[in-house]
Amino acid sequence: MSRGSVARRCGLRCIAVAALAAVAGLGVVAPARAQYFGQNKVQYLQYDWQSIESDHFQVYYYPELDSLARRVLDLAEKTNAVLSVSMGHSLTRRVPIILYGSHNDFSQTNVTPELIDAGTGGFTELLRNRVVIPFMGPYEDLRHVVVHELTHAYMFDMLYGGAAGAMLARQSFYQVPLWFAEGLAEYNSLGMESNAEMFLRDGTISGYLPPLEYAGGYIVYKQGQSAVSYLVDRYGEPRLRDLLQRMRQMHSFERAFQRSLGVPVERFDDQWREWLRKRYWPTVATKEDPEHFARRLTDHRRDTSFLNTAPAVSPQGDRIAFVSDRRQYTDVYLMSAFDGKILRRVIRGERNVQFEAIPSFRASLAWSPKGDELALVAKSGGHDVLYVVSAESGRIRKRFDLGCPTLEFPAWSPVSDSIAVVGVKGDRADVYVVDRGSGRTARLTNDTYDEMELTWRPDGGGITFASDRLAPVVLHPLRRDKQFGAYGIFDLDLRTMQVKQVVDTHGEDHSPAWSADGTKLAFISDYGGTPNIFLYDTKGGSITQLTDVQGGVTSLTWSRQHDRLVFAAYNRGGVDVFAVREALSMDPVMEHLRAQAPQAVESADAMERERIDSVRVAPSKGALATTWPDTLTGPDSTLMARGEVTRRNGLGGDSLAGAVRNAAETPRWSMGGMPQGWAPPDTAAPLPTRSPLHDEGGPFAVSDSVLSQKPEKYRGHLSADYAGAGFYASTLGVIGQSQFAFSDFLGNHNLYVATDVFSDNLAETNALAVYSYLPQRWDFSAGLFHFKNYYSSAITPLGEQLGTPRLFSERNYGALISAAYPFDRFHRMELGYTQMFVEREFFFEDANGILYSDGKQFRSVSSPSISLVGDNALFGYYGPVNGQRYNLTVSPSFAWFDKALAYRTATLDMRRYWDLTRGHTIAARILGGLDPRLAHRHRKPRVPLPLHPAARPRRAAAARALQPARRRVRRSRHGVGPGRVAAPERVGGRPSPSPGRDARVRNGDPHGAVLLHREARRRLAHGLRRHQPAALALQHRSRVLSDPAAERRGRVDRARSRRGLDGLPALG
């Protein structure tokens, strides 16, 4: 065998890898992944899955969610009737919907290998067009998420055919901008609402809105929502439908946009921004910055945070507890109520299993009557837990597990040890009360309505909360005023157990807070389009608007012993805490503004009336019904209106009452009826509904037989997620590589197969097959492998010393098994065993450059391993920025077979990161090991090239192309060189057991099978274009020194941006 033939074989292998890389570049995530650190996805529970189906959808759920699943199926069919008209497309295949009963259950899903954080409210994946959603309590949120995700499913079905096979078609290279994909989904599910108006108004005035094409994070949802709304307002809904059709035909968003609307996307962006300025800049004269009437206690611009929310003022009025992300993690802080000085960090969240996650948008903190303890909810393990902690040290005093997967909004009675909390279980969110001393729990409500943001009356005789019980629970794809989903303020009397309505402003009312004497109730309402603080007088029945802020108020609290009102407001791109002393003496905001600039106020009033009319959408006649088959048609107790709303002259506006007027002079309305002479804003002339439903027979888009069908038990079977191949043929031969990924529908079983085939000799073929079993807490995997590689080195991949550099080949084959047990999200144990057999053949070269066999060696490696892994690091754009990670591994090899190697290996890798400021991080690392072979691990590789002088320049260039850059790549113990298919450390696309140190590859590539370094690939491609033959090079299995989880997160984010894969943030 000539040396040239060895070189050609090496070159063919690298060419095949380049072809396979082109296929893998489609962004498909292979089920086998390398993982060195990484956090865990823990399956705390196993579910008995079943399904029901209709003409267009199939809902998968577990028995506890039977009633909820039938509602989702009905809502999905109604949504289909709307989207088929608005998008001009009919589904080509049935869309699967996988339903979880809580966000904690949802975070355990195996449909996606990625970790799911608290901000993800649902997602739609591309390969099988699966929609995965949790139920988190409010039915309005469920309606929003279902319509949002089904919009994505419709778009995938329209553009890609809804099948994995389309990944290899021309459409797979077609990218839909994230702003349009998410904006269309938000527009279809919400229209334009006050939350979007708040972000757009503040962003336009403050000037931080990025161009549409560069928008990311949560703001891209709101920017896209506004841009699509503007597109429909200016060009009409038929033009939007035409744009979608042209996208399908032309496979280019930019060309379709230009052809359909007659303007390029960049020009449309400019027009939309001009429209925003005309819409919002005049409000600068009529709205106030919170600092004009309140003291700023936090500043997100200085501490580089985004959220400073959920303030809770102590009973003494001197301290405020709040939730903040100022140090990247979501923590609980204590600050002075007088000057905002941070006193201490009470709770460190997202670092340990006790406080695995602290909800930020639906968070609530509660003080004990003495002011020495705090009550809060945090995720711990697979469910939420109610904690009572010391306000001074943060030490846990009490821990209550109520048996509900989700807990929210704790509130502590001002006169006892009773703590009220909202618990979500099954398809219901209800109020529970826990006794701090005995731990006894009582359920106070039992209905399908949502209760949130609890507060106690000052005398402890009742619990006041916001609820959507203004209308029956009937889910509909279009959000409509005064139908289901609108929130008002209600009160539960603990003596009579009657629920009575306190106030309804005909807006979204929430966050009630009582004054110390119980005669005034402050709350937040978005009446008029902006969330502001209102004050309800229980004696006179009047409502006064206290604020008119530029952004919006998100939460508030009122001191029990001092007239100190503390609130959180969105302002200048972040949420901050503000405080007002003597809130009862505040002047009504509109009186103050009208005195300063009366003409500006009247102009703003007219603009606001126009804006309200453009936002409100009235129900079409007959589209909704007032009943549901389970007879839950109304609240479980009597509703009674207690408040009468006063309002200033003229419809619309942000102020219900510029000043408190005499009740006889001011028109009023209540739940009981409407006086003659004028109409409340609900009855103003609305826009027509965008798309009619075809369900004249009633509220259901599916028949009774479908809704009452018997569920079918889920039986998983493997089917293809992805199949890809790359081939190369030349006069040197034919080479081909392929990847196949199989899984069941829920992602609990995964099979990954990769091959590397050479036409001239099957002994040169590389192959890998790994099966993973993932539905339980223990994760198991097993695999077979076969690899053939060529080397020139004085050290073998197993660490054996050869004395002088020699040419040799190695054929490695064997099996691996592994298991991993995650203790919690941050810690796990890995067990593995690898049995590998090695056939090594040496070569020598004669004077003519011909290679001859120079003997063979046989080795076997029997290597069990155990690893302890911990990781609570938080990532930025380029890698970890905070937290710590460690990996302790012991991996011996025993002489259990003939000619076996025996050695002992132990390694410890510890890393710590400190976030000094945004953009500045200090990192420290401790790395140590016990193994004589490790001394050679980082030695500079040598590539002997005893070639004829005429051949040396070209061969040397090719050798450099195959050798990774030393500053970015380090060698690993066993050689599977650049461009090899290698055994994975991460199988099933999630933190999973290591298959063993002797057959695995540690690299940063999320596909786990394509190991060709980018720089080497670029150099190799350059050499191939110049027809340089590849020389035999020293090949080492390589690992990118950037962190694997950081690389994985970055690629997933880019994949979502390209394909609109959705991680819908939960709205507060």
Automatic annotation (TrEMBL):
InterPro entries: 6-blade_b-propeller_TolB-like (IPR011042), Peptidase_MA-like_dom (IPR039568), TAT_signal (IPR006311), WD40 (IPR011659). Residues 83-277 form the Peptidase MA-like domain. The keyword Cell membrane does not apply. Transmembrane segments: none annotated. The keyword Acyltransferase does not apply. Residues 1-34 form the signal peptide. Residues 1045-1061 have a biased composition (Basic and acidic residues). Pfam families: PD40, Peptidase_MA_2. Residues 939-1006, 1037-1068 are annotated as: Disordered. It comes from the Bacteria. Keywords: Signal. Residues 965-974 have a biased composition (Basic residues). Belongs to the TolB family. PANTHER family: PROTEIN TOLB, PROTEIN TOLB HOMOLOG. This is Peptidase MA-like domain-containing protein. It comes from Eiseniibacteriota bacterium. The lineage of its organism: Bacteria, Candidatus Eiseniibacteriota.
